[in-house]
Amino acid sequence: MKRYMTEKGKFTGLGPHTYEDRVGISVVADTNFPVSVELYNLNKKKIGSVPFKDTYRMGSVFSMDIMGIDPKECLYRIRSGKKERPDPYSRIIIGNDRFGKRDEYCSFETPGFEIRDKGPHIEWQDVILYLINVRAYTKDRSSGVSSPGTFIGLKEKIPYMRSLGITSLLLQPAYDFDEECETMADGVKRHNLWGYVPGNYYVPKPSYAESDPCREFFDLVEELHKGRMEIIMQFYFLPEHSAEFIIDVLRYWVMTYNVDGFEVLGAALPTNEIALDPYLTDTKLIFTDFDVDEIYGRTAPRSMNLAKMDDGFMYDMRRYLKGDEDMLEKVSSRILCNPDRCAAINYITSYYGFTLNDLVSYERKHNEKNGEAGEDGSDYNYSWNCGDEGSTRKKAVMRLRRKQMRNAMTLLLLSQSVPMLRAGDEFANSQKGNNNAWCQDNKVSYLDWNDLEKNRDFHDHVKKLLKLRKDHKIFHGRYAKKMYDYISCGTPDVSFHGEQAWHPSFANYNRHFGILYSGAYERGAKGEYDEDFYVVYNMHWTGHRFQPPKPVKGKKWKLLMSSGEDRESSVYDADNNELTVHPRSIAILMTEKAEAKDK
User: Fold this and answer.
1) 112 domain residue, yes or no
2) CB 508, CB 331: distance < 8 Å
3) Is residue 483 part of a domain?
4) pLDDT tens for residues 103-129?
């Protein structure tokens, strides 16, 4: 094998570096063992082994320049003692281009792209999050994309997502995570589709690309930004990952690929250090929990970039949806929750647990195909099958399920904080009752886009709700509602009601209430006042009649939307000012200009 001339490196940053006549490499390694750079040609045949001299070390960092290397023609790995591994700071990985097969070698090259703009920077109150698994979203042939299961395939779906009303994608791990996992109890080896494991954190996943993962991921980001959409990435770290390492990874994806934010997952995370990093103060950052006062003190941030993501909204809304008692105080509080110094992210479904369709179709998880004897996945789903477990032909059950899905989407999209949709829920995607499909790299997890046409009526209902939210800031204001008349217009900004106007009853046996939103507290783009809205929630198994508050002078109520369909749709009797809301239904009234009465 060829011998190479070396010099002490510059210690200017971990990972590979390229120069005119040499390459540089800086790595962290165990000082108790010899450390070397193992060189390979593009066919992965070893062509050299270059040891680090002890004089090339500073603490636990080894840095070396190697002469006579063409970075385009050479790959490398790091050897420490007898173990060979990829460089955790490598920016390009060769050999992991097939999902489920890892044969990883590092390139000395680093991607360099010209970033044309900073992205749309959408304020949290205007965000509609869309949770996506890159592979599962378009892998099924029904997706109709040219490159299924890739960044290119996802890019081809941008027009669809924009037409739906999505502003921001939340990607399950799309760095080069290790999808190999242990053989299951049934003896079958499966692959990790979700990616909540360590990996090559600086590298877009090669198996999510046709040929060039770095370029194809960057092009995806660019195309999203052209459409005024954002991309937020999930990263999963281990407790042994230092704050310095985590922050360096996040900075890199912002500076190199121009991503708009991160959801940072893992145990013992350095949340405060990440939140206060000066390079990330304009970057959206999502955590499961953090202390706002500890991070900001008593001051408000110049740019509100932090958001909390926890299951509280999900479980309360699921329990209310299926008709549990004593839920009105919790639900009404969740609907109006809107923190001042950070965002709260609401969802009824996430990557774990049931899809929305399965939430109303199954009472028990059906995870047998996972190979863990049904022991995996949560037993606490707060789901209801509407009278029949799984697939059914009973028309009454099917109608009720469709209504319950519309109820769930209304609860989510008319709540004040940031809504997150699980991709596919908008057209009733199902995982056949599997509530933990992390190892199902198959049709269980892949979206069946034929469902879009089969459930077009439900999709259109979701689209209409998203437009309603977007068009009326009354449902997504920057600040929390105060629940009193602070502008002396005659009504509070928001108020609760029972069957009789201005008489709410949150008794533990009640499952119905109304919310009045006053348009006098919000103005549109042209400075005009918004309309008033009256939303009635009835998760009782019997119908109720409501008397809405009288509309302001010169206005009248009209029924805008109902979660019921056909004969089960809510009815508003204008002559008697009475709104009939059917069992397990939500109705939305909006004011409009009243016609002048004939003299």
Assistant:
1) no
2) no
3) no
4) 999 999 999 899 988 899 999 999 999
Domain shared by 432 and 515, yes or no: no
pLDDT at residue 597, rounded to an integer: 59
**Whether residue 565 is found in the same domain as residue 447:** no
Q: How far is CA 155 from CA 146, 147, 189, 223, in A?
A: 10, 10, 31, 7
Long-range CB contacts for residues 265-274, cutoff 8 Å, separation at least 24:
265/196, 265/234, 265/235, 265/236, 265/237, 266/236, 266/237, 266/238, 266/239, 266/241, 267/238, 267/239, 268/239, 269/237, 270/242, 270/243, 270/246, 271/295, 273/243, 273/247, 274/243, 274/246, 274/247, 274/250
Look at residue 129 and tell me if it is in a domain. yes
* Position 489, amino acid: C
CA neighbor of 455 nearest in space, from 407, 489, 405, 505: 405
- Structural domain contains residue 375: yes
Are the beta carbons of 129 and 313 closer than 8 angstroms?
no
pTM equals 0.96
Whether 323 and 206 share a structural domain? yes
In sequence order, what are the residues at sequence separation of 6 or more whose Cβ sits closer than 8 angstroms to the Cβ of residue 445? 133, 136, 193, 431, 437
User: Interior CA angle at 8 toward 7 and 14, to 5°?
Assistant: 120
pLDDT at residue 495 tops 80: yes
pLDDT at 598 over 90: no
Q: Is the dihedral of CA 263, 268, 272, 277 positive or negative?
A: negative
Using CA atoms of 319, 322, 326, 332 in order, give the dihedral in degrees to the nearest 10.
70
Q: Are residues 217 and 134 in the same domain?
A: yes
**Residue 381 in this model has a pLDDT that exceeds 60:** yes
- pLDDT at position 52 is 97
Mean pLDDT of 377-395: 96
Closest CA to 497 of 511, 484, 480, 514: 514
Token duo for residue 214: 């770095």
Q: What is the mean pLDDT of residues 124-135?
A: 98
Residue 563's CATH number: 2.60.40.1180
Containing structural domain, residue 442: 124-475
- Residue 24's identity, in one-letter code, is G
Instruction: Assess whether pLDDT exceeds 80 at residue 424.
Output: yes
Helix, strand, or coil here: 437? Answer: helix
Q: Across all residues in the chain, what is the average pLDDT?
A: 95
The answer on 285 and 151 residing in a single domain is yes
- Contacts of residue 599, defined as CB under 8 A and 6 or more positions apart, other chains included, come to none
> Last residue of some domain: 445, 475, 505?
475
Of 281, 289, 404, 276, which Cα lies nearest the Cα of 348?
404
- Among residues 459, 496, 389, which one has the least CA distance to residue 160? 459
Calpha distance 126→469 (Å, rounded): 9
Find out whether 349 and 425 touch, Cβ atoms under 8 Å.
yes
| CATH code, domain carrying 329 | 3.20.20.80
By percentage, how much of the chain surpasses pLDDT 70? 99
396 and 510 in a single domain? The answer is no
Quote the pLDDT of residue 599: 41
